[in-house]
Design goal:
The complex is a heterodimer of chains A (about 325) and B (about 210).
Chain A lengths: L6 H19 L3 E2 L5 E3 H8 L1 H4 L4 E3 L5 E4 L4 H9 L9 E10 L12 E10 L3 H18 L4 E7 H10 L4 H12 L3 H8 L5 H9 L3 E2 L1 H10 L3 H19 L6 E4 L12 E7 L7 E5 L13 E7 H13 L1
Helix pairs in contact in A: 1-5, 1-12, 2-4, 5-11, 6-11, 8-9, 10-11
Chain B lengths: L1 E6 L4 H10 L6 H5 L4 E3 L5 E6 L4 H6 L5 E5 H7 L4 E5 L5 E7 L4 H4 L4 E5 L2 H10 L4 E5 L6 H5 L4 E6 L3 H5 L3 E9 L1 E5 L1 H6 L1 H17 L1
Parallel strand pairs in B: 1-3, 1-4, 7-8, 7-9
Antiparallel strand pairs in B: 2-3, 4-11, 5-11, 6-9, 6-10
The chains are: A alpha+beta (about 325), B alpha/beta (about 210).
Chain lengths: ~325, ~210
């Protein structure tokens, strides 16, 4: 519940325009989706846990509606339905407010925030992943921000988890311990698993850095699925180095997002001056399949309100 | 330079002693003065001394990069933080205690629970499907049963003396609590080297102890 007045509103608009013009220069088409839609759409798109954080209410006929908690679900649906016959890949971008319930006490207090986002649908592999990473980097440097983008591949975690035959609650507890880097508890938890990969997990939580991370991970990981994911990550890292962007990127094997829908690359965006991440994204090849047409897709969002705060504070100095 | 928020009170001395063993030394006079922020001898670290419940707040907002605070406080705040290290200091238990241990089984209807830790208490009884009324107090919780305010209390116990003196017995242990190092998610990436240096220094000090 935030007002922007005069200079602040102008600054916010400038940042939005900067991002949108970068998207446009990469041939991304703007898409505007409804702010109110049937709740089912978001549950299919985001999964139940995330969708339930949306604000929900009923229509006059009793059907459940929601204020959109994300834009990706809507874009995935039109890609699979209305635009099923369009030649691939599809490139879409948007600047749109999304609405989520927030626990009262947390640092992320905004119930409404504007996402600057893009979706690249219908093409997979390294080049598509690299394209969205370069886009994010270009927007952030256009805004003159000092940033760090962390990348990971969820299949490194998934490969180890399936190797150890975890059920869902155990998998979720493990994910949470890695996510919060609770090394001691992690070692406790994995004590009963003698497999090599079990010990690998405890290390994952601490592995963040550059190319050295890949080598360290390779020395403890044995299963094929994780190794394939590690190779994909390395190929991406080679490209990042070739572009000379390695100072602004970091590999973080401990970033295991709560969203179940990521299927490959995941990324988080941090900028100096913000106490929490200002953006995230990744690959979600399973998403459009929920709407009847499975195809690879990758994208990210930046939080316009968080960016405005950082840039605004810098100007005030 | 990174900023570390330290919980005042029960944990402060143990935390400073541990930092000392990790080679991070503070001027005692400055710590005891009323200064808000104190810098260590090398100038690499800045310390804030704040109330325990405020540590997760400062760290989650990134005002402090790291913090040292009890797990009890973290459970209560539900803040989104990284917890890379168990410091093993200020060890205590969070327990359910009653004047009459039978009350848990005999009571019908609703039990009244007095506590400073309403989130922890709610989660504990909720998970057991026990209907309770939580009465939030800010101190001297052990008086509540004697004065008839509550049937049970949920509180921290170190030696158990305070409970005994007030005629209370432990009926259930919820969890153990120790001091933790917490780290802001953004600082963990943006100040990766400095944070890693602190974590490694503290870990070395813990293992050496």
């Amino acid at each position: 519940m935030r007002y922007y007045i005069g200079a602040e509103a102008r600054l916010r608009r400038t940042i939005e325009d900067a991002a949108m013009s970068v998207f446009e220069s990469w041939s991304y088409e703007e898409v505007i989706t409804p702010s109110v839609d049937y709740y089912d759409l978001f549950e299919q798109g985001m999964g139940q846990t995330e969708a339930q954080r949306g604000f929900r209410f009923t229509d006059s006929d009793g059907r459940l509606l929601a204020l959109r908690p994300d834009v990706t679900s809507s874009v995935a649906r039109i890609a699979a339905t209305l635009l099923a016959d369009r030649p691939r890949p599809l490139r879409f971008c948007y600047a749109a407010p999304v609405f989520r319930q927030q626990p009262q006490s947390h640092a992320e207090w905004r119930r409404e925030n504007t996402q600057l986002g893009c979706e690249l649908i219908g093409t997979g592999g390294k080049n598509a992943d690299l394209e969205v990473l370069r886009l994010a980097a270009e927007i952030l440097s256009r805004l003159d921000l000092q940033y760090c983008i962390t990348i990971n591949n969820v299949d490194i975690f998934n490969g180890i988890a399936s190797e150890l035959n975890f059920d869902t609650p155990a998998r979720e507890q493990l994910r949470r311990l890695i996510d919060t880097r609770e090394t001691d508890e992690l070692n406790q938890f994995l004590r009963h698993y003698s497999a090599n990969d079990g010990r690998a997990f405890a290390q994952l939580a601490q592995l963040t850095g550059k190319r050295n991370v890949l080598e360290a991970a390779r020395s403890v990981i044995r299963n094929d699925r994780s190794l394939a994911a590690l190779n994909a990550l390395e190929e991406l890292w080679n490209e990042i180095e070739a572009l000379g962007l390695q100072d602004d990127f970091e590999i973080d094997l401990g970033d295991v997002p709560s969203l179940d829908y990521y299927t490959g690359l995941t990324l988080k965006i941090f900028v100096h001056g913000a106490g929490a991440s200002v953006g995230r994204g990744g690959r979600y090849d399973g998403l459009t399949g929920n709407f009847g047409r499975a195809e690879p897709a990758v994208g990210f969002v930046l939080n316009l309100d968080a960016l405005t705060e950082v840039v605004g504070r810098r100007k005030a100095k | 330079m990174i900023t570390i928020a330290i919980a005042k009170g029960r944990m402060q001395d143990d935390a400073l002693a541990l930092l000392g063993r990790a080679g991070i030394r503070l001027n005692t006079e400055e710590v005891n003065s009323r200064k808000l922020a104190v810098t260590d001898e090398t100038g690499d670290y800045r310390f804030l001394f704040v109330k325990p419940a405020d540590v997760p707040v400062y760290v989650e907002h990134g005002i402090a990069d790291c913090g040292m605070v009890g797990r009890d406080v973290l459970l209560e705040s539900e803040a989104d933080l990284l917890l890379p290290l168990d410091l093993g200091i200020a060890r205590c238990r969070i327990v359910v205690a009653a004047a009459d241990p039978e009350v848990m089984t005999r009571a019908v209807g609703m039990l009244r629970v007095a506590t400073k830790y309403s989130q922890i208490a709610r989660a504990h009884f909720g998970a057991r499907g026990m209907p309770v009324e939580i009465i939030t107090l800010s101190g001297s919780v052990e008086l509540a049963p004697a004065l008839g305010l509550a049937d049970l209390i949920v509180d921290l116990v170190q030696s158990g003396r305070t409970l005994r003196e007030n005629g209370l017995t432990v009926v259930d242990e919820i969890t153990e609590s120790t001091g933790r190092l917490v780290v802001n998610r953004a600082s963990y990436q943006l100040k990766a080297e400095a944070v890693a240096r602190l974590v490694n220094a503290l870990r070395a000090a813990l293992n050496g102890a």
